[in-house]
C-alpha cells in the first residue's frame, strides 16, 4: 500500500482544547521529530491562516515546518466550509491566505490547495465556480482519500491530561494509533472495491497534541505493515485524485464521496469505539460534540456564513 502523508492545521482551529504544556510549537517539534525519524521528507501541510493573522508570533511554527524541508499548501484563511459561504466569499478567503503566507506558499514546488474539511460545496455550480478560480490561480486541488477522524480525540485527550488521568490518556493514545491503522485499511479496501486495484492514498493527520505524542508510533505501525510512504506529487498522478467527486452536503472525504456515488461506502468506525473516545472524561449529561460545534460556529460567525452542519 502506498500513501502520501499530509498534515492539516499545523496550528489548530481557534478554541481547540489543548492539554497543559502543549502548544502549536511543541506539536510542531513532535511532528518534525517523527517525520525525521522515519525519513519522511517534503510533506505538504495545509494550514488555514487566521490563527497566524490573530497571533503573528505563531508564524514561526510554519516557518520551522518549511525550514525542515516540508511544504505548505493553501487551506483558506478562515477554514469556512464551502457549504456555508458563496463561491466569491470562499475565493476571497483563498486570497486572504496568500496575503498571510504568500512567501511560504510560493516556496512549495507545487501550488496545492485543499478545501476546508475536504468538502466541495452543496452544488456542482458553486464548486465549479471555485475550481475555475483555483485553476486560474494555478492551484491543484489535493483531496483526502484516507482519514481517521483524529480531531475527535483532541478534547478527550486535553481533559485526560488536565485531570492527570493516566489510564484515560493511555487509552486515548492506544485507540488513536489503532484507529489510524484500521481506518487506513478501510479506505484502502474501499479503493480496491471501487477501482479493482490498489490506489495510492492521500492520508490526513492534524497537528494535534496526540500527533505530537504518537505520530512516530503510527508511522512505525504503517512501516511494519508494509506501507510505502510516497510524495504527494506521486499520489496526485493517479486519476482518482484528479477527478471531481460528486458534491454532497455530508461530511465525507473525496474517496468517501466517490463511494457514496457508486452506492458503496467506506465503513464507519464502530460506534462503541467512537463513544468510548468522545465521552472519556466528560461530565454527566454533557454533549461530547458541543466543543467541536463551538469551534465551527466561531468560524461561521467570522465569515458571516450560514450554519449548516451535521456530524452524521
Ligand atoms: Zn482543515
From TrEMBL:
Top-level taxon of the source organism: Bacteria
Gene3D superfamilies listed in its UniProt record: Glycoside hydrolase/deacetylase
GO molecular function: hydrolase activity, acting on carbon-nitrogen (but not peptide) bonds
NodB homology domain span: 17-114
Pfam family, any one: Polysacc_deac_1
Signal peptide: none
One GO biological process term: carbohydrate metabolic process
Listed InterPro entries: Glyco_hydro/deAcase_b/a-brl, NODB_dom
Protein name: Polysaccharide deacetylase
Organism field: Pseudonocardia oroxyli
Amino acid at each position: 500500500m502506498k500513501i502520501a502523508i499530509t498534515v492539516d492545521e499545523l496550528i489548530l482551529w481557534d478554541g481547540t482544547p489543548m492539554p497543559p504544556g502543549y502548544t502549536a510549537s511543541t506539536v510542531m517539534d513532535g511532528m518534525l521529530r517523527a517525520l525525521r525519524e522515519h525519513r519522511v521528507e517534503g510533506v505538504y501541510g495545509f494550514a488555514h491562516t487566521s490563527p497566524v493573522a490573530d497571533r503573528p508570533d505563531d508564524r514561526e511554527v510554519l516557518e520551522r515546518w518549511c525550514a525542515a524541508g516540508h511544504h505548505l499548501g493553501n487551506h483558506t484563511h478562515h477554514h469556512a466550509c464551502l457549504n456555508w459561504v458563496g463561491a466569491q466569499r470562499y475565493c476571497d478567503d483563498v486570497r486572504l491566505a496568500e496575503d498571510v503566507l504568500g512567501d511560504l506558499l510560493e516556496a512549495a514546488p507545487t501550488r496545492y490547495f485543499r478545501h476546508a474539511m475536504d468538502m466541495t460545496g452543496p452544488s456542482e455550480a458553486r464548486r465549479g465556480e471555485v475550481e475555475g478560480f483555483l485553476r486560474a490561480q494555478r492551484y491543484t486541488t489535493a483531496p483526502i482519500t484516507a482519514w481517521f477522524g483524529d480531531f475527535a480525540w483532541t478534547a478527550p485527550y486535553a481533559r485526560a491530561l488536565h485531570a492527570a488521568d493516566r489510564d484515560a490518556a493511555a487509552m486515548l493514545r492506544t485507540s488513536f494509533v489503532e484507529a489510524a491503522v484500521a481506518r487506513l485499511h478501510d479506505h484502502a479496501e474501499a479503493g480496491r472495491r471501487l477501482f479493482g486495484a490498489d490506489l495510492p492514498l492521500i492520508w490526513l493527520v492534524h497537528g494535534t497534541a496526540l500527533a505530537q505524542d504518537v505520530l512516530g508510533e503510527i508511522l512505525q505501525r504503517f512501516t511494519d505493515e508494509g506501507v510505502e510512504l510516497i510524495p504527494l506529487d506521486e499520489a496526485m498522478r493517479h486519476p482518482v485524485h484528479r477527478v471531481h467527486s460528486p458534491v454532497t452536503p455530508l461530511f465525507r472525504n473525496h474517496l468517501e464521496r466517490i463511494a457514496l456515488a457508486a452506492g458503496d461506502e467506506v465503513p464507519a468506525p464502530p460506534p462503541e469505539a467512537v463513544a468510548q473516545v468522545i465521552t472519556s472524561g466528560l461530565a454527566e449529561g454533557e454533549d461530547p460534540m458541543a466543543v467541536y460545534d463551538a469551534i465551527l460556529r466561531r468560524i461561521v460567525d467570522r465569515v458571516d456564513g450560514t450554519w449548516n452542519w451535521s456530524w452524521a
